[in-house]
Design brief:
alpha+beta, four-stranded antiparallel sheet, Jelly Rolls, seven-stranded antiparallel sheet, 25% strand, globular
Length: 284
Amino acid sequence: MATAGLSRGEAALYREQGFLVLPGFVSASECLRLRERAMQLAEQLTAQDAGPVVFRADGENPHASADYFLSSGGAIRCFYEQDAFDAQGHLRQEPSLSLNKLGHAMHDLDPVFDAFSRTERLRAVAASIGLDQALLLQSMYIFKQPRIGGEVICHTDHTYLWTEPRSVIGFWFAIDDATTENGCMWALPGGHRLPVKSRSRLNEQRTAAVTDVYDASPYPTEGLVALEAPRGSLVLLDGALPHLSGPNRSDKPRHAYTVHAIDARARYLEDNWLQRPGLPPRGF
């Protein structure tokens, strides 16, 4: 028997809103197993760090010129929160509790993440929304640490994972409860119909990610809705949907895992910042 994807009503709601929250998509035990593996990787990788690379998504992007970041499309790398460091540049707490995220190929390089990312049910959901020839391009485990979890400004995923025609879809999993208190996502219903305002790409020397701006005006903020999601929820995000998340100043973590998939029939541009030499993307 074929695994069921979305219902007709769910698929229609996704097309209308540009997002869909599916509570209880994965079990709490699956979430906790992925969380445990992420913490193991965090401890292993931070112990090997030659020097921490800070990742910021608040409009500043010092990481964009770091080879450690630019070559992470085919690796598992760790990136730190800015507020994890004191005024002297020293970590305030142990390294594994200071990370912004892991990225960007856990789904291909780690068996626990691979098993979580590739299921018949996910394949069926992707097909329900037109992604029947999906390629898994990028994965991120996002820590959103208590008290130091950074802001993510309003953006679209297509800006960073550009295909022609546009095809990227985000599959975002709540590993912890995501609430307005600990920095859940916010999205603009129907905002995926707006023109995408910018594109991130490699410069001509391929030494930094730069942004081409087509429209300097900000995305609308009026009408944003909170995508609160209990542990185990799957949130689907159209690649052109404006979305953001605030900082986490609470004492509760907001771990999440996200996989971005593109259509195998679309053209993935050679100057996109994320490249995967020697690691061609595979499907669900």
